[in-house]
Amino acid sequence: MSARGGSGFVLTEQARIVARGTDADEVGVLMAAELRPGTGFDLPVVAGRPTRRDVVLTIDPKAGFGEVEGNPEAYKISSTANGVRVTGASRHGLFNGTQTLRQLLPAFAASSSRVNTTWTVPAVSILDAPRFSYRGLMLDVARSFLEVDEVKQVIDAAAAAKISVLHMHLADDQGWRIDITNSGRAAGDDIDYTALTRVSGATAVLGNPYQSADGHTGFYTQDDYRSLVRYAAEREIEIIPEIDIPGHTNAALASIPQLNTAGSSHPATEDEPVAPHNGTIDVGYSYLDPTSEVTYTFIEHVFSQLAALTPSEFLHVGGDESHAMTQRYGHAGYVAFVERALAIVHGLGKKTIGWNEYAESGLTAGDGVQYWAGTTEHAKRAVIEDGAKLLVSPGNMSYLDMKYHPKTPIGLSWACSGDCDVAHYYDWSPQEVIAGVGDEHILGTEAPLWSETIRGVDQAEFMIFPRVLAHGETGWTAESLRSPSDFAARLASVGPRLAAAGTNFYDGPQIAWSTELAGTDAALSVGSAGSVSVGLLAAPGTKTDGTAVTVDEVDDADSTGGSSLTAPLTATVDFGDGSAPVPARFTVSEPRDSLHAAGVYAVTAAHAYDSPGTYRGKITASDGSRARFTITVS
């Protein structure tokens, strides 16, 4: 990004979004929907000639992208006082550009309610494109379920960070989350696949030493899943589903009697025809029978339906932690099972991704190996010799369910302990994870969130953000351009945006989170006395006693916070009727605690107007920031 001279572009209520082309129109509609609530502007999406008040969106792969020419996600932005132009090499590139444009606007552009501020886009010129096309986030909805709207909430926040893949871990020992119907069963197949969600959609991980609450239960109908795929695709996020086999399969064994053969981890008995539900966080004990044809009938039916529901070229087959199976059948038995399963998925026209344990099992060019831990030998051979691609997810640098610090009340610490805040998730290099496997062999990066200790979207967001932003940046930025100090400086302004959007995150001390003030309008009756809300303040890493907002410097259960404030922030309110300014008070519905960032503060003051009219007031904060508001008195 390079700064231009001049005052920049100011988005006003006369602004339109001028979209050139069908795909550009779709992106424009999304951008307008994102900006309307906070600005209160109509922002019509139109074709035709732009004016100097407009934002122009164009898709043109031949627009001249210089050093990033040929990258379909490339975009460029030109902002001057005469307008903003965002040009993408593709729909995805244009969408990336609109997300950067949102980041250039004040933080309350992400607000769900109208605020008053000057909507300035700095005068800049930007040319950008990602290092890897796959920049992933994984949600483990198998152990603890997330509702459709909760997943969409995560998608919105991830899309703003240009995450491009959502890996959904849909089945594990504790639960099964995707509806599989009996339609299309092979001749002789008498399995009732609807039992998968009828039985194991109603189970989840239980409370454990790291989280007292039980996991959430539920499942996605096929229409639910289709809606998530569409919603994500509109925001340039590809959904890749995972059904983990041959291990992590107790939920399937608990639902389908036919899978409980003598060769499985749970041979059926008269008293126990299916495996009992196991909601512990144990791993490695369950497995499907590699010698039974019923197993492969089951796999083909399940993955056939997933393939039909999923536009992605990939299906994730898991393959990790099959300890008990390997002990019983030997490593060769595990490899033979995986090779047959891969042939089934390849026969459906899909490529596979699996955890690195599956890497010696006959991968073909284009398959993905997701490295998380352990030996690198087989993953390296699959990549170098077989043409597979490496998906980089080293547990110690990628797993988002690790505690930020020892006091974090949820999360684990086996992969990362001590200081596992955002800097740790930035300070690594994908090309160094497996020696000799450089960018040309790397599919991308992914940050998984396992849910042994995570309950609901609020806790999920807290563990995801801001660490996924650091992890995603390792997948976006060329190695030669990465800078921890530059990233930290840019991240500081993201905190108020997350707060304004209502996205939970950890506002820890590694970042000097910036603050942002905006005004809010109100309507009153003549003579009515009481507290009036006239503004909003986003100030991550802080607390308030009602009279001032201060950095949380007490290292208690929620640890210390980070902030750019160097002194307590106070404010006065001038109500615009000639009366003397009065001290503001600060209230917050979600104060900072061990599982929440500081919420947005309401700026309030007590006042009564003597006469009807329209009054324009001003908030003046002690850090020099100001905001204006309008009170309509009748």
Characterize the structure shown.
With 634 residues, the protein is an alpha/beta fold. The chain has 15 helices and 28 strands. It has an 8-stranded parallel barrel, surrounded by 6 helices. Strand 10, helix 3 and strand 11 form a beta-alpha-beta unit. Helix 7 packs across helix 8. The protein starts with a strand and ends with a strand.
For the sheet with most strands, the description reads: 8 strands, parallel, barrel
Q: Might you state the CATH topology name of the largest domain? A: TIM Barrel
CATH architectural group of the largest domain = Alpha-Beta Barrel
- Cα distance spanning the termini: 48 Å
| Sequence of strands across the biggest β-sheet | 10-11-12-13-14-15-16-17
What is the oligomeric state here? single chain
Overall strand count: 28
Assign the structural class, choosing from mainly alpha, mainly beta, alpha/beta, alpha+beta, or little secondary structure.
alpha/beta
User: In the CATH hierarchy, what is the class of the largest domain?
Assistant: Alpha Beta
Q: Count the domains.
A: 3
Helix content: 25-40%
Mean pLDDT reading: 97
Tally of helical runs:
15
